[in-house]
Write a structure and sequence with these properties.
single chain; 210 residues; Arc Repressor Mutant, subunit A; Tetracycline Repressor, domain 2; 10 helices; globular
Length: 210
């Protein structure tokens, strides 16, 4: 019974993610989503309470998996802070999928200047992941591996910003890189390894005490 509930909730979230990405938060409705998901309104409201609750659940589900992953990396005592950071970069960049529903959803609702209580809640969800990165930077400083005057906030912005530039400005990024960044094969085989290498080399040069 519990598995059936979980499967039904995941199905609703899958449909909601696609609808929100296609038409945006304002234009989407719970009735539209329940109709496409093939469930009644009572079930949708029982699980999520409101459109805002459903929208937040879509974000939380996507981000929770990555948060657990980087939290486990951060707690791994067999690695130093640099190795943890490099592994987090690998995991983060592996999540970059151009034109996925979630990428479009993030671009539409977060990076285009929306304001208000909903955006604040979404930002808080994302900040949980940011704080996991921050914890690793602080460990590197406290252990003497990273420079004591490391600008943690801008270093984190560099990691997230590099990815966001490519995913949120694909036309410009394609011209810059002289290749279509919407090409899935190019993204997987060439661009992701290139981004990982660049970020690791950049942070290595900036962070480490020689």
């Amino acid at each position: 019974m519990e598995k059936e509930k979980t499967d039904k909730k995941d199905h609703i979230l899958d449909v909601a993610e696609r609808v929100f990405a296609d038409v945006g938060y304002d234009a989407a409705s719970t009735r539209m989503i329940s109709g496409e998901a093939g469930v009644n309104m009572a079930m949708l409201n029982y699980y999520f309470g409101s459109k805002e609750g459903l929208f937040l659940a879509v974000f939380e589900r996507k981000i929770e998996h990555f948060r657990t992953l980087i939290n486990n990396i951060g707690n791994d005592e067999s690695m130093n802070a640099l190795h943890k950071l490099e592994k987090c970069i690998d995991s983060f960049i592996d999540k970059v999928v151009i034109n996925s529903c979630f990428s479009r959803l993030m671009n539409r609702e977060m990076w285009l200047g929306r304001r208000g209580e909903l955006t604040d809640k979404l930002s808080d969800i994302i900040m949980n992941n940011v704080n996991e990165f921050k914890r690793i930077f602080e460990e590197g400083i406290s252990t003497g591996l990273f420079h004591h005057d490391t600008d943690i906030e801008l270093a984190i912005a560099t990691i997230f910003g590099t990815k966001n530039y490519i995913t949120n400005s694909p036309h410009v990024a394609s011209k810059l890189l002289k290749h279509d960044v919407n090409d899935a094969e190019y993204m997987e085989n060439e661009l992701k390894p290139r981004i990982k290498k660049y970020l690791k080399q950049l942070l290595n040069a900036y962070l480490l005490i020689k």
